[in-house]
Amino acid sequence: MWITRKVEFSASHSCYNQDLSEAENAALYGADANPHGHGHNYSLEVTLEGAPDPVTGMVVDLKAVKQILEREVVEPMDHRHLNHEVPPFDSVVPTTENLAVEIWRRLQPHFAAGPGRLHAIRLYETDDLFVEYEGR
């Protein structure tokens, strides 16, 4: 069985690879290569997998899941410029894809032993753009 918890955060970023020229960055990332950045209201869905506990009827304690998401994702990323305030994005381009991988890296240890194991995350950058990552 899968259960999904959703959180939201706002952050700005610039898609700019320091190893490339301005022209190469502009060709790759277009307007998103602006060094001043631009913002998004991200929506993160975290899906856990497991069997309901026979006593509680729950796969996981959703209050505990919310606390982990707040501590590992929302608090360090909300209202931040990712490139300047959130490692590793001082050296990794904070694309939606890279952001999803980093969020998985932050969450996975908290759910590795169960009872709900991290199955997938879905990170929406906009209403019509998201990345789904399963970390396998």
From TrEMBL:
UniProt-listed Enzyme Commission number(s): 4.1.2.50
TM region positions: none
UniProt xrefs under Gene3D superfamilies: 6-pyruvoyl tetrahydropterin synthase/QueD
The pathway this protein participates in, as annotated, is: Purine metabolism; 7-cyano-7-deazaguanine biosynthesis
Question: Which keywords accompany this UniProt record?
Answer: Lyase, Metal-binding, Zinc
State one Pfam family annotation: PTPS
Q: One MF term from GO for this chain?
A: 6-carboxytetrahydropterin synthase activity
Catalysed reactions, semicolon-separated: 7,8-dihydroneopterin 3'-triphosphate + H2O = 6-carboxy-5,6,7,8-tetrahydropterin + triphosphate + acetaldehyde + 2 H(+)
Which cofactor names does the annotation list? Zn(2+)
InterPro entries linked: 6-PTP_synth/QueD (IPR007115), 6-PTP_synth/QueD_sf (IPR038418)
**Which family does the similarity line name?**
Belongs to the PTPS family. QueD subfamily.
The protein's name is 6-carboxy-5,6,7,8-tetrahydropterin synthase
Q: Which organism is the protein's source? A: Paludibaculum fermentans
